[in-house]
Amino acid sequence: MKMMEEEVVIVGAGIAGLATAVALQRLGIRALILEKSPGLRATGAALTLSPNAWFALDALGVAQKLSSLYTPLKTGFVTDVGTGATQAVSYAATGATGFRAGPRPVHRKTLLEALADELPIGAIRFSSNINAIETQSPDGSPIPIIHLSDGTVIKSKILIGCDGVHSVVARSLGLGAPVDSGRSAVRGLAVFPDGHGLKEEVRQFLDVGIRAAFVPLNDKEAYWFLACKSSPKGEMMERDPELLQREVLENYAKDFPEIYKDMVRHSDLSTLTWAPLMFRYPWDIVFGYLRKGSITVAGDAMHPMTPDLGQGGCAALEDAVVLGRHIGNSLIKNGGLFLGAVAQDLDGYVQERKWRVSWIVAGSYFSGWIQQAGSNWWMKFLRAIFYKFLITKIIRIADYDCGKLPKVSFSSELGNSKKIE
Fold first, then answer.
1. Within its chain, how far is the Cα of 400 from the centroid?
2. Which of 34, 68, 180, 364 could share a disulfide with 305, CB 3.0–4.6 Å?
3. Are residues 71 and 111 in the same domain?
4. Are residues 72 and 154 in the same domain?
5. Closest Cα partner for 15 from 227, 311, 358?
6. Please, what is the Cα angle at 84 between 81 and 88, to 5 degrees?
7. Domain containing 262: what range?
8. Rounded CA gap, 15 and 26, in Å?
9. What gap in Å lies between CA 77 and CA 387, rounded to an integer?
10. 194/100 same-domain check
């Protein structure tokens, strides 16, 4: 059995985990990331980052190298497949310039690599599977202890679960399991070697029980997705990308315009994924156990949500900065990371985040429900009201600045050499 001691352990090398490690790195705190996969995961192909995500990336010091690669979106179009009616949606900036210039679509792999490049060699321990998490309190302050499947035991002052929807850390806190929304989503990356010739705008399509869209990433690639009621073929399609592509073309999108089906036909099959859309009830976030001692959660481990507002990755980046800010303030205030003080500051992080993310989860679910719930007259009426009056108000949830990281003028090693016992 190998024993290790770490200042901070982060479980999961996704967006939340890598961003949190970068935030702590900026404060002079080295975090060890435990990732169960053998390498960085790029599931999902791409995502759209709204202004709130760019403010967070700016605080982390990585915004510029990403924003220079991707152009802000200004306009979107929503088409009713049944009637052919199309409505424009503006993504133009409502406030100051800069990162409020509109959302940008980003390759997920590029985002993960940009964050990972900011970390020192050895910060990520791949192929690390957790068997158990326990706490010991020799002097009244709970110490997180992580048991890995290879026999390694790690003691840490802080444990942060960024391990996704089915989080091991969330379960150890006593959080209830996320619930199935009853919908699933297929995502993919379309590649056009000779260029697609599309404008930089979102094209969305609505049919009975189906919502789909595509958005160009650059001159030759476009990200597309389709959300629908869950299918009994889901598990088979998840394992067979050719079957998944065929099912979308011949079943779900058979009545869609050719421009959308052309996206599906040009898919890089290695990027195709099918997954159920899970979320955590907002009241479970508000009243649930998001912290126990110096253990807490971030990203999908805290607030899994449906993708209908495109805020999953954005909220995870916000989490990283806010969590880093509270840990940094504890470091400055106490001259080091001490268990009792850190626990109190993590509670401040939880209090700051739980209300905001619970509203985002609720808004995402409501947005998906109203766009896909049915085709009777009153649902059509509600949908028209939603696109005419509500969607612009909901989009403004992205016009949010999570703040900056504190400036730390000394190493976290100072005043922090006490051994974990």
1. 16
2. 364
3. yes
4. yes
5. 311
6. 100
7. 180-278
8. 17
9. 11
10. no
